[in-house]
Design brief:
mainly alpha; 2 domains; two-stranded parallel sheet; 2 strands; 6% strand
Length: 124
C-alpha cells in the first residue's frame, strides 16, 4: 500500500488525472490511510466500488501465480531482498508471450462463464 502511494507520487499524479481505479476488497486496499488518500485526491482519481467476493477476471492474477510457482520452485530460497528482486525480474522478463496471448484470448470465455454463473464462482 505504501509502495502504491510512493509510485503515484513518483510518477506525478497528474499523469493519471481523471482515471478510474478498481480495487478488490483485499485488506491492504481497504487500509484507512489508502482510503483517506483517495478521498483527498477525488479530483484526480475515481475509485470504483467493488462488491465483495466478486469474480476475479484480471489476467494479471494468473501471471502473478505463474511467477510465484516459478519462484517457489527455485532452490535455494532467496537469502535476501536483492536476490528476490533479481529472481522476480528474471522470471518476469522470461515469461512466454504465448501465455499472455492465451490469457487475452480466454477473456470472452471468462466473461461468459461469469454471466452464466450469474456472478458466482467459475473455474477461472
Amino acid at each position: 500500500m505504501m509502495l502504491c502511494l510512493r509510485i503515484v507520487k513518483y510518477y506525478k499524479v497528474d499523469v493519471y488525472t481523471g482515471s478510474r481505479r478498481q480495487q478488490d476488497n483485499a485488506p491492504c486496499h481497504k487500509a484507512r490511510i489508502l482510503l483517506e488518500w483517495f478521498e483527498e485526491h477525488t479530483d484526480e482519481f475515481h475509485l470504483m466500488s467493488w462488491p465483495p467476493n466478486s469474480p476475479d477476471l484480471r489476467p494479471m492474477e494468473h501471471i502473478w501465480d505463474a511467477m510465484e510457482r516459478q519462484l517457489g520452485a527455485q532452490t535455494p530460497p532467496c537469502p535476501n531482498i536483492s536476490t528476490l528482486r533479481d529472481r522476480c525480474l528474471d522470471i518476469w522478463y522470461n515469461l512466454s508471450p504465448v501465455m499472455y496471448q492465451k490469457l487475452v484470448a480466454s477473456m470472452p470465455r471468462r466473461v461468459a462463464a461469469v454471466l452464466k454463473a450469474k456472478g458466482g464462482a467459475t473455474r477461472y
